[in-house]
From TrEMBL:
It comes from the Bacteria. Pfam families: Response_reg (PF00072). Residues 5-119 form the Response regulatory domain. This is Response regulatory domain-containing protein. PROSITE patterns: RESPONSE_REGULATORY. SUPFAM superfamilies: CheY-like. Keywords: Phosphoprotein. The modification 4-aspartylphosphate is found at D54. InterPro entries: Bact_response_regulator, CheY-like_superfamily, Sig_transdc_resp-reg_receiver.
Length: 124
């Protein structure tokens, strides 16, 4: 399970830093992306094992990115977890093709358990 690379995209630097710390403690390699407009090229060049994606971001939303990833021939099967404080986040994530949804705020146990579940399912 460990030694996996997780890309985290959020427009809040504080959230990126906290999530990076939480995941590195668990043994994951973390790539942080603050600007959602560069995310797709980052995904292609870094090929992470999983994408943790905020739903509400300026310019390009997480929903738009996820739909684009799902329609991509190279990225289509990438496991994606959407995280958001939005009340509608779970249904938006589900409709866009997310593997899982995580409601903000979350703790380290919730985060790692959802990540491990999604990574395990994607290998099945």
């Amino acid at each position: 399970m460990k030694n996996k690379t997780i890309m985290v995209c959020d427009d809040d630097q504080g959230i990126l830093d906290v999530v990076e710390l939480m995941l590195e403690i668990e043994g994951y390699r973390v790539i942080k992306v603050l600007d959602s407009t560069t995310l797709e090229e980052q995904l292609i060049s870094n090929r992470p094992d999983l994408l943790l994606l905020d739903l509400w971001m300026p310019i390009v939303s997480g929903e738009h990115i996820l739909k684009s990833v799902r329609s991509s021939s190279t990225l289509g099967d990438l496991p994606v977890i959407i995280f958001s404080a939005s009340i509608d986040g779970a249904s938006i994530a589900d409709n866009a093709g997310a593997n899982a949804f995580l409601s903000k705020p979350f703790d380290m146990i919730q985060l790692t358990s959802v990540i491990e579940k999604v990574i395990t399912q994607s290998k099945a």
